[in-house]
Structures are given as structure tokens and as C-alpha cells.
Amino acid sequence: MSATTSIHGMWSTRLAFILAAAGSAIGLGNVWRFPYTAGEYGGGAFVLVYLLCVAAIGIPIMMAEILIGRRGRQSPINTMRTLAEREGKPAAWSLLGWMGILSGFLILSFYSVIAGWTLAYVVRAAGGAFTGIDAAASKAMFDGFVGNPEALFAWHTVFMVLTVMVVARGVASGLEQSVKWMMPALFVLLLVMVVYAGWAGDLGAAARYLFAPDFARLQDKAGEAILSAMGQAFFSLSLGMGAIMVYGSYLRHDASIARSTVMIAATDTLVALLAGLAIFPMVFAHGLEPGSGPGLIFVTLPIAFGEIPGGSLFGALFFVLLVFAAWTSSISILEPVVAWLVENRGFSRVRAAIIGGTGAWLLGIACLLSLNLWSGYTVAGKGILDLFDYLTANILLPLGGILIAIFAGWVLPRAATLDELGGTDSAGYRLWRFLIRYVAPAAVALVLLNGVGLFKVIGLA
Ligand code: PFF
What we know:
The chain is an all-alpha fold and about 450 residues long. The protein has helices spanning about 15-25, 30-40, 45-70, 75-85, 95-125, 135-145, 150-170, 170-200, 205-210, 220-235, 245-250, 255-285, 295-305, 310-345, 350-370, 385-410, 415-420, 425-450, 455. Helix 1 packs across helix 14 (about 310-345). The relative contact order is 0.20.
């Protein structure tokens, strides 16, 4: 029925797939984006909605993406077309793949800029720039850096080159090896940071902030907050744009999709919560503002590292690991378009990776300029970088998610999804099918329409 292998290669084991997919999921979204977004929406209520979204929407959609990818065994564009045609459905389903490519370019462009910040911070930490720094000085250092387009440009370029290099080589040989120890190392270092933050900062206040939901804090921003929590779930789990789909296309048929998914989603969530617990104690102990935006970790962590004995070393190590986490994510953002260029244009992998990377790099220049020289240009109060971030996480990825759910729940025959999910018509399978057919598409659509204010416009809210 389906091809048993992909022309692009295969993961050597199920563990390799889990590591690669977890590498894709765990990245700046967990350590940078989750804490500052939770901070912008007041903490606990946001976190609770986020966890619900991961469980009820994220996990079923991740399973759907992996199984679609594995059944198609090609780039998302070609996979969608092949599978749709096989069921006698319109080839226009491939548009879902195209939408994913667009999301991928937009995400990679700003992702690389932020990953560039982490690279710059490795150098600062190692050079002792954090030693004895206070909140005001840390903020001044960050503002000075972000206001400097040449520096941002240089680091953005370095990171994009790193990404292209790995994708050009093929995922299995390069990354499969390195994620094996980088991910556990990041995890251990985050734990060290949580312990430190608990000792030097205000862990109680942080835990209350993150885990005691106070819906009153959302007030009239509830719709927007819920949309952002859902968008954060899509972004953090790498869903809705074909990254996990293309990784699924390299997965052997005998590997369990459900078990892999639960492991990937659980570690991703744990890392996000640990990042929150490492950062908020310092925020509260130093009187910083939780809702201060994208600079949050770049302002708080240096203060912590500046106080810790050996902080220059720990700080450098932490930011190195964050670079690696970002790196294992950025390659997965580039992979769908590269697979498509190889399949449809007959390009070599190297050429495809360079072309894809250059496109995202050019867009990234606009993102980094929006932080300084072009800061006057805004749409709906957002500069280019913020706009790309908002558009992808909160609109394009959820839209992609709805379509993936509809495709897996309504277009693919029951027998096909059952076959991919282990072949036994268990309670677990039926739960998945219920979630993917009804709950996920309806919930995502409601949150999306409500969050963008459509119900208000037509007078329903
Ligand atoms: N999940 C990544 C993170 O949390 O940093 C970001 C990401 C990777 C988003 C891949 C989307 C994607 F397709």
C-alpha cells in the first residue's frame, strides 16, 4: 500500500526519531517564548489553558501529522497530494503543504534572529560580562544589543549557516548523533538553574504565579490569551506546518506513534515548565516585570549567572545548550521545503538547503531591522518580527492544525489510520479518533475565531 522507505533516508531506530522530534519540539519556544508569553498573560490561567491545549489538541494532532507523513513518505506537499488522490479527494489538499512552507519561512526568519541572540550571549557569558550585573545593567546591555543591527545581522547569519550546514548533510548523520547528549545536558542544566533560582530567588512566588490560575488577570484579554496559549502549544510542539510530518515520513512502520508522541509532548512540556521555574523566581526577586516581553530571559538569566560562583562558565554552557536546542529545531523548520526541492526540482540536498536557507535569511534581515532602524514601521502595533511570530503561532499553525485534523479524521479511511496506529481497535484508538474528528477541529476553530475577535465583529460576544 504505502512505500516502506523515503528517498531522503530513514531514522535508524525509533529512539532516533523520538530524539529528533523532541529536538524539533524543544527549542526557543520552551525557554524563550513560553516564559515571556506566560508573563504577558499573567501566568497561571495561561499555563492551565496551555496544558489543556497540549493534551487535548496537541497530542492528537501530533499523532495525525506523524501518521500522515509515514503514510505518504514524501515532503508534506507531495504527501498530501498523493494521499488525497489515493482517496479520490482533490489534489488541492497539497495547499496545506504550501501553507506549511510559508509558515516555515516566516518562523525560520525570526527564529534565526533570536537564536543569534543566544549565540551572542554565549560569548558575553564566557567573557564575564554578567559578573555582578544588576537588573538595570542587564536590561541596558540587552537593549544596547538589540539596538545594534550589525551585531544582530552577524549572529543571525552565523546561525543560518549552521542550520543550512546540517540540513545539507542529511539529518541522520549529523543531528541524530548530537541530540543524544545535548538534550539530556540541557535538561540537567535547567534543573541546576531551577535549584539555584529557588535558593537565590523567590520560588514560592514563581510557583504561585505559574500554577495558581487566576482567570481575573486575563480580564478582557481572555480570548486573546487563550489563542496565545493554543498558539504556544502549536509552536512548542512544532505542529501545523509539516515539520513533524516530514520527520514522520522517515519513521519505520513498526514504531509506535502513540507512545512516541506522548514521550515527545511530555518532555517538551516539562522543559517549558522548568524554564518557567528557572526564570520567574529571579524575575520576582529582582522586581522585574513578568510581562516585559521577548527580552525576559535575556535580562533575567544574566543576573542569576552574574551571582553564581562559576557563573561565567555556567552561563556560557547554558546559552550553548540553548543554541543547540534552537539548532535541532531550526533544521526541522527547513526540512519540509528542502525535501520538496529535492523531489520536485531534482536539486541536490546541498543546493536545496542553501536556497531554502537563503530565503529565510533574507526575510530574517527584515525581522532584525524591525528591532532598531525600522522600529517605526508597524502593523496593528507590531513590528515585522512580532508580526511574523504572531501570524505563524496564533493563526497559520492553528489553521494548518485544523486541516491536518480534518484530513486524518475525515479524509483518510478509518482502516488507514487504524493501521498506522497499531492495528487494534482499542479504547485508545477510539479516543484519538474522537478527538481528531470532533474536539480538535472544533476547539481550534472556536479559539481562533474568538481570539481574532470575529465573534465580537459579528455581535456574538
Ligand atoms: N518547536 C520549536 C520550539 O519550541 O522552539 C519551534 C518550531 C519548530 C516551530 C518547528 C515549528 C516547527 F515546525
